[in-house]
Design brief:
Layout: H1 11-27, H2 34-40, H3 55-80, H4 85-102, H5 104-110, H6 121-141, H7 147-169, H8 179-201
C-alpha cells in the first residue's frame, strides 16, 4: 500500500489546489482527475472529498484563483505604466496577454464554454472583479461618456484583448513569427483598441 502524507487542518485543501494547478498546466482539462490530484498530493484517493465534493468544485477553486491572479497582473502592469488613462488601459491589456501566455491551460479553464457547470459564487465574484477593473480603466479614458457607452467600450476592449491572445494561443495569429514581431503586433492591436475607445466613446464639450 502506498504511503499517504499527513496534513494539518487547512493544508490539505491548499495542497490539492496546488496539485490540481500543476496537473492542469501539464495535461489540460482532459487529463484532469481528482484521483491524480490526490496522488500528487500524496493522500488517499478519497481524501479530496473532505474539501471538494466533486472535480468541478476543485476546478472552480482553481479558476477563482486564476481570476484573482489575472486582476493582480493587470493592476501591476497598469501601475508601471505612464499615468495617462490610455497608457494604463493598454498596460492592462499587456498584463492580460502576458497572463494568458504564461498560463494557457488555466486561461482556457477560466473561459471554458462549459464553465457554467462548475461556477460558484466565489468564481463569479472573482470574474466580476476582473471585469470591473477593465471597466474602471475605460471609465478613466472616457469619463464624460454615458454609462452605457462606457460599458460597451469596456466590452469592446476586453473582446479585443481576449480575442487576440486566444488566436495567438491557438496558432491562428503569429505562428512562425519571432517573439519580437509578435510583440509588435500585439502592441499595435492594443494601441488600436485604445484609440477606438477614445474615438468612439469620447464626448466633446
Amino acid at each position: 500500500m502506498a504511503r499517504t502524507k499527513s496534513y494539518h487542518h487547512g493544508e490539505l485543501r491548499e495542497a490539492l489546489v496546488a496539485a490540481g494547478r500543476r496537473l492542469l498546466e501539464e495535461q489540460g482539462l482532459r487529463g484532469f482527475t481528482l484521483r491524480e490530484c490526490a496522488r500528487r498530493a500524496e493522500v488517499s484517493h478519497a481524501a479530496p472529498a473532505h474539501h471538494f465534493a466533486s472535480i468541478d468544485d476543485l476546478l472552480a477553486e482553481i479558476a477563482t484563483r486564476g481570476y484573482r491572479e489575472l486582476a493582480e497582473v493587470m493592476e501591476n502592469e497598469a501601475r508601471r505604466a505612464k499615468p495617462e488613462p490610455t497608457a494604463r488601459l493598454v498596460a492592462q491589456g499587456v498584463g492580460y496577454m502576458a497572463f494568458a501566455a504564461a498560463h494557457p491551460a488555466l486561461f482556457q479553464l477560466m473561459f471554458n464554454r462549459e464553465a457554467s457547470r462548475f461556477e460558484t459564487p466565489g468564481l463569479a465574484a472573482a470574474a466580476k472583479q476582473a471585469y470591473h477593473f477593465q471597466l474602471a480603466a475605460v471609465d478613466a479614458v472616457i469619463p464624460k461618456a454615458p454609462a452605457e457607452m462606457r460599458k460597451r467600450m469596456a466590452d469592446f476592449a476586453w473582446a479585443t484583448v481576449h480575442g487576440f491572445i486566444t488566436l495567438v494561443l491557438e496558432g491562428q495569429i503569429g505562428e512562425g513569427e519571432s517573439p519580437r514581431a509578435l510583440k509588435a503586433k500585439s502592441m499595435a492591436t492594443l494601441a488600436a483598441m485604445a484609440e477606438t475607445v477614445v474615438r468612439v466613446g469620447g464626448v466633446t464639450d
